[in-house]
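Progress note, project year one: complex with cobalt (II) ion.
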Amino acid sequence: MTIKSEREIKLMKEAGHINYLAHKEMEKFIKPGVTTFELDKKIHDFIVSHDAYPSCLGYEGFPASACICINDEVVHGIPSKTRKLKNGDIVKLDFTVRKAGYESDMTRTYLVGEVDARVKEMVVDTEKALYEGIKQVRPGARIGDVSYAIMSYAHSHGLSVVEELVGHGIGTNMHEEPDVPNYGEKNTGLVLKEGMVLAIEPMLNLGKRNVVMLDNDWTVVTEDGSPSAHFEHTVAVTRDGYEILTGE
Ligand code: MF3
Ligand code: CO
Ligand code: CO
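Model obtained:
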């Protein structure tokens, strides 16, 4: 994996900030009746208007600017003109922003209208699990420390951890070394160093951890149909800890 210079991290933070602002902007469009195609267009136009590129578009043939997943869809949902949000849904917006050659990756799970209390709790706990993982990041810590923190938070809050999909390094490419699993053991794996940048992204399910791929060869859903939540930030390892690059 690569070590980024201060200059490179500054560029990644510019990409990450646009990603954060696009997520903030989307809050006002999340309501019953809107199609996932319309949400994708808003994301596309917001990013392009900030002189940046929504780099999911065309990535290995992906046909849209954002992965948009509802309820039991875990990752890589394809925006659709016939798919409308409805009251009680949860919707995940996962997209990358490339600016000046550098990538950022961020996901949030949004509530649509009145959501069942247990599902809402899962969403809150998945975001907390992400922050438990992020808090581990500092030079000398290991990938397994991040993985273990996420896993133990998930399990102690009654959630299962998707194992087939993992976080990743990020830089000039959206996906770089190393893998950042959301399950694992403390004190194992790669030792973190200042200048590494990771996309940390727990995907936690209310039911069983198992997932299956749909016929479109992109979208992954829970096997038991239970809802799944997903949060992601792009995080740099700094001299004394971490910095979230997909923030304010
Ligand atoms: N943003 C996803 C991730 O978290 C990757 C999406 S790739 C795409 O790693 F092609 F589906 F857009
Ligand atoms: Co992502
Ligand atoms: Co990612």
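The chain has a mean pLDDT of 98.
Residues 56, 59-60, 62, 67, 76, 94, 96, 105, 199, 201, 232 surround MF3 (ligand 1) (CB under 6 Å).
No further modelling is planned for this target in the current period.
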